Amino acid sequence: MTLRHRFVLLFALGVQAPLAAQARLGSIQFPTSGSASAQSPFLEGVLYMHSFEYDHATRAFRRAQEAEPGFAMAYWGEALTYNHPIWNQRDRTAAMAALNRLAPTREARRAKAPTERERMYLDAVEVLYEEGPKPERDTAYAAAMERLVRSFTDDAEARLFLALALQGLSQGVRVVPSYMRAAALAEEVFRDNPNHPGAAHYLIHSYDDPTHAPLGLRAARAYSKIAPDAPHAQHMTTHIFLAMGMWDEVVSQNKIAADLTDWGPGHYPSWHLYGLLQQGKHGAAQAQLTRAKDLPANRPTAQRVAYLASMRAHYVIHTERWDDAALAWTVDVSRASPVAQAIDAFLAGFVADRRGDRAATAGALERLRAVSGAVPQILATELNGIAALSAGETDRALGLLREAAKLEDVMPVEFGPPDVVKPTRELLGETLLALERPAEAQREFERALEMAPRRALSLRGLGRAAAAAGDRAAATRAYELLREVWHSADAGLPGLEEARRFVAVR
Fold first, then answer.
1. Cα–Cα 20 to 30 A to 453, which of 120, 382, 477, 482?
2. Percentage of residues in the chain with pLDDT exceeding 70?
């Protein structure tokens, strides 16, 4: 069937967009049967959706519905904004409410779509929101999108929504084969349209682990320029940058993202603070943490409190300031996630051990053991090992830390500041170095850096361990990398001067 309209929406920097709102979100081709007045906000909604700016996308799709109440694809778009595959979230109630505004039954809604292609888009979203377990519906939706792609081989949007559906099959946990299938689809679209926000975005998600991250560097460098008005686009680039230890870019991009949003303890500020810590800018990190302190009191959501607890833990553990004023803050994690509760308990126990307070360490360990989940189990095993070491039980301590390391090794790759706030291989390396077993410590630091490239404390530990083991070449490489990472670090950081002295002696 001939389409009544074919539109290309351009929201590129410096290009006049055909909408009143001059959002800069990238460019796509997504022809539909909608009228011109409905098509423009519809396309804006799709662009926002590709950058996971779901609230903005919902509002744009509703404007399209107002412009043309019978425009089926506008309701398809709104319904899809309530499905967040990467985040493993789906709001069936809200989605069905949107679809029911188009028509009260699936058959009546389908009749509103004038082309077979649009009917297939509607069919796919109907399948997604049928009753049943989420993994089952995700699988059925991916299959429906695959049928659409086979039927309309030139539809770039269908290929990208299939790519995102394939990533969603992981249920929030990276399944590499599915992610590589998604990458192949997104690569095709990115090749044909280098200004497509979804293509760049989904490539970054496909590749954001230390093994595959170099493959996503081109998309990461492009995405922030493709969609400069989408905060998530500014942040998303740093999934690749963090996986490669590119800390300057992690800091600069997350600052932009945080400044574009309602600033507070949250996703972008937490990544920003973590990047500052890796850069050795502890003073700037302290200022960020202090800025975040009072915001949960104003809007005390469980999520904000969880982010504040994580930010504080990373700050204290990385700076090794066991008497920092932030430790006296009251951070009530009782309503937060189990991971946030575990992080808070681990921080209390870790700091208590460093202060020599074995009773407080034991109390924190009991709190940790009361929390279930993979991350709490690892943190509890770590803290148990730390306590055993302080009690003089060296063999038991090393056994527990190696057990925690094995548990962490098989965890799915994390995207961002690690929930295991003291990575176990790094902790094990520091422990072995303190026990004067530098060759073993060196191996642990090397493994830590495989999982977290260019992490500052692991580089410092590797330099120290390799130097003590007599491996001057490895120590020099580690210290040179540390100096590169700390090129604008605060003066007087533990390890900075020793790195300078070691590299200076040839």
1. 382
2. 95
